[in-house]
Design goal:
heterodimer, A: alpha+beta, Heat Shock Protein 90, eight-stranded mixed β-sheet, 16 strands, 40% helix, B: 367 residues, Arc Repressor Mutant, subunit A, Dna Topoisomerase Vi A Subunit, Chain: A, domain 2, 2 domains, three-stranded antiparallel β-sheet
Chain lengths: 695, 367
């Protein structure tokens, strides 16, 4: 088509003889013959291609390479566990690999040994070498099923990168059950042939009854902060609260990120492709590969949502016999068929193949990992882009946590000099954490559909400041997860989600819902604050006014009497008891925000997660749910923290009970009227009335 | 003075009255409220007979139990307290010192009573108006921002100052020039010339213009401060001297003249004491460039602000005289303003030797 249009369009530039090969005419070299050129052509193996283009797979620089290796190994471990229905228990160990001589400190080191151990189903012996040392080998590419990995490149690419930079093979230990032996393998990849080379294989004793352990030695750089291994693991836990993760840092610390949600995500079902999601070339290939003998059988059997009846109809419209042999449908006929399919009304693909994280689980993840005052989570109903079903989930954590807020107040106790301003951290921008099929995306934020949708949301409507074209400001973490059988990444290194209109729309809708809830929370808090500060203002100023009056009167004033008179008036004018109610001081309930948690210095309200039964000591140490030992002071603070943890845990237990009761109530009432708070609480009801009145 | 047993001054009584308002209101369970006269254009009237801008009767309430006003109310009481302290100690002080004196952190909080001086300055003016006490009476002085030279003998704190023997620099006019502080012993001048800019005043002083034309030369370096205005008024009242005003030819110059003549909007309550309704506008008039053949290229283009201000002036009741309307409109239509300094284009001493003598001879001034 392009050719014909060019012919019709502009006048042919071929009339000018200079166009074909200006380089040749300029160079004095003899021209190369087609035979010589032909001799230079040869096949390129995938492995060779990726050796040269390793940035495509996320190995651009040593820091990112280290992260990519950890990520691939962990993703594989989690996928395996979940598919087998096992609650994952993953140990990630990073060690500095000494290259002869004493190991340098972690921040200086350039070589690391990564060991990832899981309690998954293990791998059968024969499959170990190709899985770890053959690119594009895997179980996930050929089926449409939601999983972390997609192409079968990841872990073998990590191994190849290790091999390339350190020359060390990948070591694997795997055991499929307590009765089977553990197998040890050392494999390398033959980059020319893209085939595994087995350097060593043997049966060994292994303490774990079941699972897999991968060890890769790579060149890398360990640095904390943005897009670091630490950040990746923390974010992984937020979206995967059913995982217990133990992280042994290269500095010798042990971080335990506990499990807070005790259900393995429902195993996603595999689906057949939806006719809307395929391209012509794909259809041609499927026509050739199918096992069906009839065209109608092929349509009904190899696609989802095509019934035999509909298949016949498509054939009829396309002018083809339903009994035609699929292999004979070629060229123009195939194109006709394709067009017919695209213009036929077909039901959206089934969505039960998706396994979203769920609001409860997102809430527990955020609550455990991020300090805040307000948490909420939204799961959108499934939607479809290009025939692929997907689900968008969003979450939000706002605030700095009650402890931090109190600390801030104490910090400000120093009176301000002229020209000084109270730094109200308002300049801090929100952080966006992005996930695709439960995997955190750490790079290329600004190219990602999620990030763009966050920017496009008018957060100002929800009481958050936002400059034009920027992220909203404030202590806020925005969580967005896309679950799909096929996440459209912008590149093989899986760093950013491509921007399809349907995806953008769903993300925006989810964010708006989060925003509305945040807005409700902020408004309520603002109201409470302003009442409180009204009262505070008078109380504070009464002191000043009375003291001044006393001095004016030459110190002969009945100070106490005047103060009392003024205080009485102040109380009357700020609404007295009523204000207490607004402030929630007499225990008025939460405000009918679904799937939200509100943390105040007095306690926690909402669907508060429980830490899953672990040895009780761990629970106490991690009672606040923040990774233990995150800074030097942690050791010293441990005593204080465990003391603090006790009352907090109690409050949490209380909150949890309340939440459960309420949740049950809501379920009993049914979800139809979910938007309106239906709590039996008198205050909540009056508030709802007030809101309606305003609207 | 200090030896005498201290009597409570009237001003002190007025300040104590502020405390009484609070105490009375508290006893009667009312919201303590001050009624403060409004200081804005909408609340001033021009008394054509007297030729003065006067404060109207509108008052604003400042109540304590109002979130928006509570802090200001508290600050007002604090400033009153500081002013009363001054009275009792018989000291004078500056606006800035009042600010520092009243500033502290409120008990049990990290909030300051005052954050900047901009908060305390208007409060002092509020108290001046409300208590009908002058700033001098409140013992608050402004900076010495004016100079005087000429055949004038003053007595300041017991020192006799002969303004004819102070060289080019002259005598720096204090901000409080009330008879209790400054006595005009003798003045033999024929008129007072009030110059807007220090540079022109220096020129005249250096050329001994005051000697050749027997006058008192005054300047306020821009908008004249109260001390300068009050001194000119006293010379006008006590020695019956006419006052001539020499300012730039721009809207701000016109306004300076009008403040000297009729009083200002913000300090309308002081007009009675400060304004000189008989003061004359000597120049620079918008007619002068043509009359004195100033080349067009020494003019400056009026900017948007100038034009807006000039149009505002046209609307003021005290600029309604026909001559003034033509004067301002002429400037607007020429689109140019002229500085006094521009006269130097003709000659360095053009102002002293030609311009002023000619103007005085021709009685070429505006009323």
């Amino acid at each position: 088509m392009a050719k014909s249009s060019r012919k019709k369009g502009r006048p042919e530039p071929a009339a000018q003889p200079a166009t074909p090969k200006p380089a040749v005419s300029a160079a004095p070299k003899p021209p190369v013959s087609a035979v010589e050129m032909g001799a230079r052509q040869r096949e390129i193996s995938v492995s060779e291609f990726f050796t040269k283009n390793r940035h495509l797979l996320g190995f651009d620089n040593p820091r990112k390479a280290l992260l990519t290796c950890v990520k691939e190994a962990v993703d594989n471990a989690l996928d395996a566990c979940e598919e087998a229905g096992i609650l994952p228990d993953v140990v990630v160990k990073l060690e500095v690999a000494a290259n002869g001589g004493p190991p340098p400190p972690a921040s200086q080191a350039s070589r690391f040994r990564i060991t990832v151990t899981d309690n998954g189903p293990g791998i059968v012996r024969q499959q170990i070498p190709p899985i770890f040392a053959k690119l594009l080998y895997g179980s996930k590419f050929h089926r449409l099923r939601m999983s972390r990995g997609q192409q079968g490149i990841g872990i073998s690419a990590a191994g190849m990168y290790g091999q390339l930079t350190t020359g060390k093979p990948v070591q694997i230990i795997s055991r499929t059950g307590a009765r089977s032996p553990a197998h040890f393998f050392e494999v390398q990849i033959d980059t020319k042939k893209n085939e595994p080379l087995i350097l060593e294989k043997k049966q060994i004793e292994w303490e774990a009854p079941r699972g897999t352990q991968v060890t890769i030695e790579v060149e890398g750089r360990y640095q904390k902060g943005r897009a670091s291994v630490d950040e990746y693991l923390e974010q992984t836990i937020i979206a995967n609260p059913h995982v217990k993760l133990t992280y042994l840092t290269p500095e010798g610390e042990t971080k335990v990120l506990p499990r807070t949600y005790d259900q393995v995500p429902e195993s996603p079902r595999e689906i057949k492709p939806h006719p809307y999601g395929i391209e012509l070339g794909m259809l041609l290939k499927m026509l050739q590969d199918t096992k069906s003998h009839w065209l109608s059988g092929f349509l009904a059997g190899d696609f989802s949502r095509v019934s035999p009846h509909l298949a016949e109809e498509i054939c009829k419209t396309a002018g083809l016999s339903p009994r035609a042999r699929p292999r004979d449908v070629l060229g123009q006929t195939a194109e006709n068929l394709y067009k017919t399919i695209q213009s036929t009304k077909i039901m959206a693909p089934p969505t039960n193949c998706l396994s979203p994280i769920g609001e409860q689980a997102i809430l527990s993840g955020l609550y455990q990992q991020i300090k805040g005052e307000f948490y909420t989570a939204v799961s959108r109903p499934p939607a479809v882009y290009r025939g692929n079903p997907f689900v968008i989930e969003a979450g939000l954590a706002y605030g700095r946590g009650p402890e931090q807020a109190q600390e801030d107040q104490q910090k400000q106790a120093v009176p301000l000099a002229e020209g000084e301003e109270a730094d109200g951290n308002e300049h801090e921008l929100a952080r966006v954490i992005r996930y695709a099929n439960r995997v955190p995306l750490l790079y290329q934020q600004s190219a990602c559909a999620i990030f763009k949708a966050v920017l496009d949301t008018t957060w100002r409507n929800y009481g958050v400041t936002q400059s034009r074209g920027a992220l909203p400001a404030g202590p806020m973490v925005i969580f967005v997860h896309m679950a799909s059988v096929w996440v459209p990444f912008t590149s093989e290194s899986k760093e950013a989600i491509a921007e399809y209109d349907e995806i953008h729309k769903e993300i925006t809708l989810a964010l708006r819902e989060c925003g509305r809830r945040l807005g409700a929370f902020l408004r309520r808090r603002e109201r409470a604050y302003s009442e409180q500060s009204r009262r505070d203002i008078f109380a504070l100023y009464i002191e000043e006014v009375v003291e001044s009056c006393n001095r004016l009167k030459g110190g002969r004033l009945p100070v106490a009497k005047l103060k009392e008179q003024l205080h009485k008036m102040a109380l009357k004018r700020t609404g007295g008891e009523k204000t207490d109610q607004v402030l929630g001081k007499n225990g008025s309930g939460p405000e009918g925000l679904p799937h939200s948690i509100i943390v105040t210095p007095d306690g926690v309200e909402g669907e508060v997660p429980k830490i899953i039964a672990e040895p009780s000591t761990t629970v106490a140490a991690n009672g606040n749910g923040h990774p233990a030992a995150d800074d030097k002071g942690a050791e010293a603070a441990k005593g204080a923290e465990s003391a603090k943890a006790a009352p907090r845990a109690e409050a949490k237990a209380r909150g949890h009970g309340k939440a459960r009761r309420e949740h049950a109530g809501r379920v009993a009432q049914g979800r139809k009227t979910d938007r309106r708070p239906r709590s039996a609480h008198p205050t909540a009801r009056s508030k709802a009335r007030a809101r309606r009145g305003k609207g | 003075m200090a030896a005498k047993a201290r009597k409570i001054t009237t001003v002190e009584k007025k300040l104590i009255g502020v405390a009484d308002i609070v105490i009375d209101a508290a006893q009667r369970r009312r919201d303590p409220t001050f009624a403060i006269p409004v200081r804005s254009l909408s609340n001033v009237t021009f008394d054509e007979k007297k030729g003065l801008i006067e404060l109207g009767r509108r008052k604003q309430a400042r109540s304590f139990f109002n979130v928006g006003m509570a802090k200001k109310f508290m600050q007002t009481v604090l400033v009153a307290d500081a002013l009363c302290e001054l009275q009792r100690a018989n000291l004078t002080t500056s606006l800035r010192e009042i600010y520092y004196r009243s500033k502290h952190t409120i008990k049990n909080s990290h909030e300051n009573t005052l954050d900047t001086q901009d908060e305390s300055d208007p409060l002092i003016e509020d108290l001046e108006v409300t208590l009908a006490a002058l700033r001098e009476e409140l013992h608050v002085r402004a900076e010495n921002a004016g100079s005087v030279v000429g055949p004038l003998v003053l007595v300041d704190d017991g020192d006799t100052v002969d303004c004819a023997r102070l060289g080019k620099g002259g005598y720096s006019v204090p901000s409080i020039v009330e008879p209790e502080y400054l006595d005009i012993r003798r003045c033999t001048a024929d008129f007072v010339l009030l110059v807007e800019k220090g540079t022109q005043w220096n020129r005249l002083s250096e050329d001994k213009f005051w000697r050749t034309h027997n006058c008192v030369l005054l300047t306020g370096n821009g908008q004249p401060p109260r001390g300068v205005r009050r001194l000119a008024r006293r010379l006008h009242d006590e020695k019956k001297l006419p006052v001539y005003v020499l300012v730039d030819n721009d809207p701000w110059g016109y306004y300076i003249y009008s403040v000297i003549k009729q009083g200002s909007i913000n300090l309308a309550f002081e007009s009675e004491r400060m304004a000189i309704p008989k003061a004359k506008f000597m120049g620079l008039s918008s007619a002068d460039p043509e009359a004195y053949e100033l080349p067009r290229n020494v003019g400056i283009k009026l900017n948007d602000k100038d034009v807006a201000r000039a149009k505002e002036l046209l609307g003021y009741t005290w600029f309604q005289k026909k001559d003034w309307q033509t004067e301002i409109k002429r400037m607007l239509s020429s689109g140019l303003k002229y500085e006094l300094d521009a006269l130097a284009n003709k000659d360095f001493q053009y102002l002293t030797k030609k311009y002023l003598p000619h103007k005085l001879k021709e009685k070429d001034w505006l009323d």
